[in-house]
Amino acid sequence: MQLDLNLLAALDALLEEGSVAGAAARLHVTAPAMSRSLGRIRRTTGDQILVRTGRTMTPTPYAIAVREQVHELLHQVQGVLAPSRELDLARLERTFTLRWHDSLVALSGPALLAAVRGQAPGVRLRFVAESSIDTPELRRGEVDLEANANRPSAPDIHAEGVGEVRLVVVVRQGHPLTRAGTVTAEQYAAAEHVAVSRRGNLSNALDDALARLGLTRRVVASAPTEATALEFARDSDLLISVPEVTTRSAAADLGLVVLPLPLELPSAPIYLSWHQRYDTDHAHAWLRGLARTALAMCGAS
């Protein structure tokens, strides 16, 4: 049997996109050309691969079963055929997309950009907002690096712990809790809170820690970012519990007060994540090193 490696790339795109049009756009070919490739794949495998269900295409059981294997095979082939070249940073022209937690962008983004511009002036960085739902951009190659508190569970996504941050409580100037010598867990639980969650969750690990003490708190709202949550504390008695290192400067700018969190809670981790396809990509490895250094300053501050 004569095998065409282009069909492997077409099959991978079809399985990832779930449509002929999407796969064609991904590989920068015309839809008719991708449709012909699908026909050849069907003849080769003896399977339909994608079948129409109303207005969408649905993968067959065989397609679902081989999806990961196809993706890994393509990755291996690309690793074999891609030439290994020395990285010339002075001549490197590339745009990297980074999806980082907004507070990490504010704290570490400027240092990372300065380091990149100093070594590779032709490289550009695109910081994009986190989504409120799990999205596959890392796997699809649309995002190069993620940085947040979530360790990915997918086996093809690599993650590295680059730092830790501890939580503090932020309140307005003159808040009743600022007059107490030490904030107790009971006082913390008795207050009203605004949670920070891009998914809109009204509970988190803080509530679990309170529950272990037989306490509960009232969360009256959630905000998608720490910067937004801090605004709620400016003219109210609401409590905001956020990472210290990423919000101390913003809290000071807003005239807010930072208090210790009266709960035994482990420090929140910071993970840097990327797809395994970039493990041997010299430019990506260079960027990972710079990002690791910039984010480590977060945990050390």
Task: List the topology elements.
Elements: H1 5-17, H2 20-27, H3 31-45, E1 50-53, E2 56-59, H4 61-81, E3 94-100, H5 102-119, E4 123-128, H6 137-140, E5 145-148, E6 157-165, E7 167-172, H7 185-190, E8 192-196, H8 205-212, E9 218-223, H9 226-233, E10 239-243, H10 244-253, E11 256-260, E12 268-275, H11 282-300
Parallel strand pairs: 3-4, 3-5, 8-9, 8-10
Antiparallel strand pairs: 1-2, 5-12, 6-12, 7-10, 7-11
Helix pairs in contact: 1-2, 1-3, 1-4, 2-3, 5-11
Keywords: DNA-binding, Transcription, Transcription regulation
Protein name: LysR family transcriptional regulator
Domain HTH lysR-type: 3-60
Strand order of the largest sheet: 4-3-5-12-6
Give the termini distance in whole angstroms: 60 Å
Count the DSSP helices: 11
Cα Rg: 24 Å
Helix content: 40-55%
- What percentage of amino acids are in beta strands? 15-25%
Biggest sheet statistics: 5 strands, mixed
Instruction: Let me know the average pLDDT.
Output: 89
Q: Which descriptor suits the 3D outline?
A: elongated
Low-pLDDT stretches are none
Strand segment tally: 12
How are helices and strands ordered from N to C?
A: HHHEEHEHEHEEEHEHEHEHEEH
Q: How would you classify the helix and strand content by structural class?
A: alpha/beta
Protein name: LysR family transcriptional regulator
Domain HTH lysR-type: 3-60
Pfam families: HTH_1, LysR_substrate
Family: Belongs to the LysR transcriptional regulatory family.
